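Supplementary Note 3. Input sequence used for the single-chain structure prediction.
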Amino acid sequence: MVAFAASNSLTIDGTVYLSLTIGGSSKTFTLHTDTLVQNITTSSDNTYFSADMLDGSTIKVISADRLAFEVQSSMSGASWSTDCQSSQSILTANPPSTSIIGSGIARLTITPSSSTCAGGGGGTVSGGGGGGGGGASDTYYQTKPTVVAQAPKTTTAAEQLAALQKQLAALQVQGGATFTALLKLGSTGSQVVALQTILEAKGFLVMPAGVAKGYFGAATRKAVMAYQTSKGLETVGHVGPGTRAALNAESGASAAPTPAPAVAPSAGGAYNFTTRLRVGSEGDAVVSLQTFLEAKGFLVMPAGVAKGYFGAVTRKALQAYQASIGLEQVGELGPATRAAINASQ
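The predicted structure, written as discrete structure tokens, is reproduced below.
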């Protein structure tokens, strides 16, 4: 869910509806982003917006008025395409590749035209700067989930009873639930039911009418991200080691014993990494990598965040280490980086 700071946007089920002033009239655009889009900023005159993007991220902008788009980038090599359909136009934009962007963030500035599109279009943009000529940016949309306060409403006795039943169910779950498994999109089972019950009681999840608990879908993922934000955890949208620890601590349950690290230092202090690690990787090998990067001064784990998940912070730290030893800053642990770490001690 994208947090909004002004009245010219509306967020419904994770989709942002953004109103801009185009050709003197208000036009609404639908924005779809992924978790690698860092933030969205609109111009002070509300005629264009910018997206700060990591390598591998994608933003889609849909115009029901079939408007054309202009795209500019702070770095050379960004790509985009426009699908001009009979009922809408769809802009799909991506930042430069890893070899260009390195450990930085590319800003793509997107300016809708007052003219309608004519056929498809696309290309590679180069050069810098904000489009549209609207002055400094002033409205910031953080692409991390937030819980938007709802206006107070009058509840019936039946609604109050249902809320109390949900809270009671959550207390019963918390009293006996121990989360031990990775839960993500597509997961099913009793641990998903327990997770959804807790998220409901905390106000992060509203199960759709007629939908039974037990399947980890998009609504549950957004609720997990909101919970992670409330706990200061990285908003990865799945229940990994850090989120499990937080849930288990709240319920008073003890987590399952942690096995010995799979990549423990040898007697000589050396590591022996053997597998590829990248954004989304989890487990003891990630813990060992994070411990190594901490010792080298490239990584500072956020307060309250347990080791074991390879997220954006670990990726940037690994890129910094790769730069320090003259390797390509790909942000993942491949053969060359593994060899360098294994031989460094």
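Residues 157-176 form the longest helix (20 residues). Residues 322 and 328 are 6 Å apart (CA to CA).
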